[in-house]
Amino acid sequence: MARRGPAARPARGVPRHRPDRRDLPAGHHRAGRAGHRRTPRPADRRHDGLAGRGGDPVQRAGGAGRCGRAGRRRHGLLPADRSPVRSREPRRPGHGLSAPTTAVRSRPRGPGAHAAPVGAREAARWLAAREPRRIAFVVDAGLRDAPGIAGVREWCEVADDVVELAVSGLGSVDDAQHLAARLDASDVVVACGGGSVLDRTKLARAVGAGVDVRAIRHATAGHVRLTLPQGGPPLLAAPTTIGTGSERNGNAVTAVGDRRVLVSGPALVPDLAVIDGRLTASLDRTAWLAGLYEALARTIEPFAGGRAGSAADQLALASVVRLAQFGERLLAGETLDAASREEAARLTGLSHTPAMQQGRDPFSFRSWYLAHELATATGLGKVACLAAVLPAVADRSRSGQAIWGSHARRQAIVERIGAVAGGTGDDAEPVMGALARRWGVAATTPMRFDRDAVTDRVLSAWGTPHLEGVSHDEVDRVLAAAQAALAGGTGRAPHDDC
């Protein structure tokens, strides 16, 4: 039998994902039976974080490192450009624990796992049901006195002891290790802040559960994948921004020297994602529009690279319309009420769910890898860099370069946005470029960078499988167009929360 690709059906025994009805865009109806089968609820189970032993897990240039691939698996780390190797060494529960284990009622953390979204009341009940003695409350240092944070503190009062830890900005591996030590002995961890704060907390919990950080610290690739299962105390993630989706996914961006490295794996998936409109009430219009734009990009690009006819298509088409409508309401000066803020937040996280990823290449959002390195090189925010890269990618797709996705499929989805945003864009001007200027999220300060250096960095950090089939010439052409766009600005766009 021929081997099936990433778009194949789940393996036997893996439950299909049933989209949370609260995630679906308003007015969206069921899109076929395949995406709505009931997911069995797992029984309580104990997650043991196992710390590996052996040699250096760091992958070296031209080699597999001292401990080999199986050794790296025992350490809970495996570079993303290597196939997983099933270790023959049996697991020994309790061996090498560096953090206390806690019985957690949660969904299975397999490929494509994501945190269940709940409201404020459900989050409070979830915490109370665990009867925690000690809660570690990690909060954005700039938001400690924000009105919505008081509600989160009230949830934490069910514990005898609450330790509040203030952090800010994009964290490093050292920061994650330091935070992991402070999370030790906590029964539950509550993280409240933007994407950077949530990423740092997720990585710290994984480090406390036994992840060896040496492979992250010395990574030469842009992506390091953790194979260690979820461990450590349960994590409740309460975002105060929108767009990143960090509260629901198994990804975290961390600083390694002067670079940003993407770390992913089931150990990083929070147990619960809280969508509370009070937490995003203080966001200004610019931050809202940047988050909505990022969610649109994360929906459009995988759609362009996906196959036609999947149930995920209907979700994507409905989602972009609602996201664009929220953006236009904000642009018109409207203030979103709590219900609208919660709906928008759920929609921005929907692109991380298996329901939206059905039939998609997991690495089809190729624009992100270029924007990621461009942000590092220029110091601009990720959204401003996406706004420079997306029109160039659309142009290359229109010229027949299918490696960037189907031009017809991209047009089919961006036309929905254009219909909402007053016919934004045309054949001469890609919709996402025009929308970025309309919403004010494009970079506005003339910005120059070493294109050859960034091209080389993109290909060395994000080669196979992320940019498999994308040539040096293609990356250079896209970055040349992005460079021209960034060189023509008139002021600087705000830096978004990574």
TrEMBL record:
SUPFAM superfamilies named among the record's database cross-references: Dehydroquinate synthase-like
Region (Disordered): 1-118
A Pfam family it matches: Fe-ADH
Domain Alcohol dehydrogenase iron-type/glycerol dehydrogenase GldA residue range list: 123-276
UniProt KW keywords: Oxidoreductase
GO MF, one example: alcohol dehydrogenase (NAD+) activity
Biased composition (Basic and acidic residues): 41-50, 83-92
Gene3D superfamilies: 3.40.50.1970
InterPro entries, per database record: ADH_Fe/GldA (IPR001670), Alcohol_dehydrogenase_Fe (IPR039697)
Biased composition (Low complexity): 1-13
Start-end of Basic residues biased regions: 27-40
Family annotation (PANTHER family): ALCOHOL DEHYDROGENASE (PTHR11496), HYDROXYACID-OXOACID TRANSHYDROGENASE, MITOCHONDRIAL (PTHR11496:SF83)
Stated name of the protein: Iron-containing alcohol dehydrogenase
Annotated source species: Xylanimonas allomyrinae
